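User: structure tokens for this one?
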Amino acid sequence: MLNNLSRDARFSNAWLPKITMLSLCGQIFMQAANSTPPTDNSRTIAIAGINEPTISNYFETLNAGDFESTAALFAPDGVMYAPFESGIVGHNAIASYLQQEARGLKAEPREGIAEIQADVTKVQVSGKVQMPLFGVNVSWLFLLNPQQQITSVTVKLLASPQELLSLKR
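Assistant:
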């Protein structure tokens, strides 16, 4: 019987590290399986000096390539004044323009200032736009109506004429 006991002890001592490792792996697996998956709230954009949800949503949807949602933030007769373009009016036209021109764009707003007037909120934001082949400093001037819809946004490139010419090549 003593032989059996010492054999059992040797068996358990040899397998104990392996069983412990399997147990730990199982616990880690179960924790991962039971944990809540990360939500897509990680795309929330914080802009120093700006606390307007419409402005944050503009940049979030733009960066996500969800141009229909970006256009939906505009008033029905809202206007986008993009660089080198005349005014682009209305949800469909804005979504179509963004689909053609903004794929791969990553807007990086840094800071801004909001000024509330009687029936309009004026929001000036500065930052950078990164395209697949280049990046450029940009400013956005938003006008929001009392319903917090974008009535217009003017996008200006903050680059010297020399820098703009180099982008054309």
